[in-house]
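Colleagues,

For the teaching module next term, I've prepared a clean inverse folding example: a structure given as tokens, and then the sequence designed for it. I'd like students to try predicting residues themselves before seeing the answer, so please don't circulate the second half yet.
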């Protein structure tokens, strides 16, 4: 009797398995279209600085607009423009142009789409200070994303009581320790210009020759630890392989927040560059409508604040100020006071003379 009952049980189990297989097959068939749908979601490609947005903003946008966001990074304004040009205007949808001074070059290269403001209703949230900039009249091709300064992150115990002088970079007798120069043409040459009391954007031949001399001499110092992007410079200071570095204030702000008391961000006594970064749409963006949606999303007051609260850079979004962390609004490294603003110099393009600055930079890096 037992063998007979076992056989019946086996047949019953076999039947159940067959039913389960059929049911599973049906479920897979039903699920396949949904899987295909997910695979076919539109993809928004963003060319952006590394660590320049709270990635949760991407996830929120993906959920709200049923899409996928893919980010490609760059570390210098020159690298960004090179990627935009080399990749053609069909490679990216949204591009973060590294500073207003690169806008003229990007527009001249023909890689940007002229913006339809009717698709950007949140444009009204911009502070009047950032509307109609000289480098892009009427915000025809760009909207301001973040703005900030390029100063010095230094170990707090090394900072002199009378502030930081650029002589710590350019005079071997006054070096404070091991240092890093930022890997950016306009800003590093701008530092050399300011140290000599010249305009930050000067490309006069005498000033460029003097900058080449200063910077090549700095490179020969035993305490020179190389050229780095803002994130790289901060990382080396934190790691202890450098004592101070020229960096972007937002990168420095996150380091200071994570390491209370250890480091300080300062604007040199001689002054420092100020910059505004832009968001643009590539001329032949594969998903232009999604790009418009993303830029308008960034211009939302709460989203704009979310981004700046994370990046530790100042927002150009006037409506976002209501949602900015109070401690950040009081932080002069992010929102400079009047005394600090007086020592800031806006980086600008120099039009047809730009190749002169690039040639000088090539000479500096080659030495």
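(Answer key — instructors only)
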């Amino acid at each position: 009797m037992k063998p007979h009952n076992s056989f019946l049980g086996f047949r019953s189990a076999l039947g159940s398995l067959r039913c389960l297989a059929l049911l599973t097959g049906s479920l897979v068939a039903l699920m396949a279209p949904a899987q295909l749908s997910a695979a076919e979601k539109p993809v928004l490609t963003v060319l952006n600085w590394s660590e320049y947005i709270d990635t949760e903003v991407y996830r929120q946008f993906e959920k709200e607009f049923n899409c996928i966001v893919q980010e490609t990074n760059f570390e210098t304004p020159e690298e960004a423009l090179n990627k935009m040009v080399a990749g053609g205007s069909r490679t990216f949808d949204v591009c973060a142009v590294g500073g207003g001074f690169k806008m003229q070059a990007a527009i001249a290269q023909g890689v940007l789409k002229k913006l339809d403001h009717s698709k950007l209703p949140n444009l009204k949230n911009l502070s009047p200070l950032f509307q109609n900039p000289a480098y892009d009249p009427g915000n025809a091709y760009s909207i301001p994303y973040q703005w900030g300064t390029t100063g010095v992150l230094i170990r707090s115990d090394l900072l002199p009581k009378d502030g930081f002088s650029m002589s710590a970079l350019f005079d071997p007798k006054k070096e404070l320790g091991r240092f890093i120069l930022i890997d950016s043409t306009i800003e590093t040459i701008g530092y050399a210009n300011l140290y000599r009391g010249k305009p930050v954007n000067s490309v006069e031949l005498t000033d460029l020759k003097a900058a080449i001399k200063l910077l090549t001499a700095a490179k020969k110092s035993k305490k020179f630890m190389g050229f780095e992007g803002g994130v790289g410079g901060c990382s080396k200071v934190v790691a202890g392989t450098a004592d101070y570095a020229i960096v972007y204030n937002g990168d420095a702000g996150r380091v200071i927040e994570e390491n209370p008391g250890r480091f300080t961000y300062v604007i040199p006594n001689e002054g420092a560059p100020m910059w505004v970064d832009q968001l643009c749409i590539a001329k032949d963006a594969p998903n232009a409508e999604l790009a418009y949606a993303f830029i308008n999303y960034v211009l939302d007051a709460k989203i704009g604040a979310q981004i700046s609260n994370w990046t530790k850079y100042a927002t150009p979004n006037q409506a976002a100020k209501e949602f900015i962390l109070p401690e950040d609004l009081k932080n002069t490294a992010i929102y400079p006071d009047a005394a600090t603003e007086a020592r800031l110099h806006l980086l600008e393009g120099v039009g047809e003379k730009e190749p002169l600055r690039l040639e000088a930079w090539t000479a500096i890096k080659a030495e």
